[in-house]
Here is the input.
Amino acid sequence: MAFVTRFAPSPTGPLHLGHAYSAILAHDMARAAGGRFLLRMEDTDLDRCKPEYDALIQEDLRWLGIGWDGPIHRQATQIAHYNTRLEALEDKDLLYPCSCTRSDIRAALSAPQEGVAFNVYPGTCRGRSMASRLPGDALRLDLDAALKVLVTADLLFDETGPAHPGTHRINPAEAQARIGDVVLSRKGEDIVAYFLASAFDDADQGVSHVIRGADLFDFTPIQVILQHLFGLPTPVYHHHHLIRDDQGKRLAKRDDARAIQKYRAEGATPADIRRMIGLPIP
Ligand code: GLU
Here is the structure.
């Protein structure tokens, strides 16, 4: 199997040490395996993603010596296409419209943020028919119905990261308790859940290995369920440990103090960055 991996930042802030770790690790693993390393901008959150961060991320990666193969894939250009693909689940009666508040839905659609727990939906709108959908309603996956469709499927994924190595089988009861009826999109507003777009793209781009932070480990079961519902392959996952600050807190985009740009301005070299995050210098 050809080794294909990607770095998939959301351009909502500057590249900081935590992202640099993710990008360098994925890049080095691809190069060591003689494989491909792709760059994908997960820019579906049109309010928070900015072209200047997109440009800065590219500049910082180049400075770090991280070159990517092929053109950059930008998800914002594909939102209508993701929504069209979602119709396959509507045909299987696995979606329902939801009119819960706009901010709840926005929060549910974006990539996770430090300190924000995954909200399991209590099911307020479950049971509503697609015919009752109003403009601006979100579409939720009826997880119970989806798991019934997948009752004979082997819901498995292989994990090679340090914290949970091995093969993981998705337990339906646990998926209900921990994931619930996730929001997949909000039609008419051109918004789609990051984990749906990412699952489509990993399959379309032939990604064999998803290398990303441990904060996304809990999202993997929902992506595996979606892969089975859409007939997509499941890649191997590698969730790496997170780079934390001196207080043990995960670095976030707002931690501009740890921005690569700032280290560059202070005269650090790419080798210094690798040393700081504990990655070997080639
Ligand atoms: N776009 C996500 C983030 O910025 C990463 C998603 C992934 O690597 O699967 O955290």
Observations:
- Residues 8-10, 42, 111, 194, 198, 210, 212, 216 surround glutamic acid (CB under 6 Å).
- The chain has one domain: 4-277.
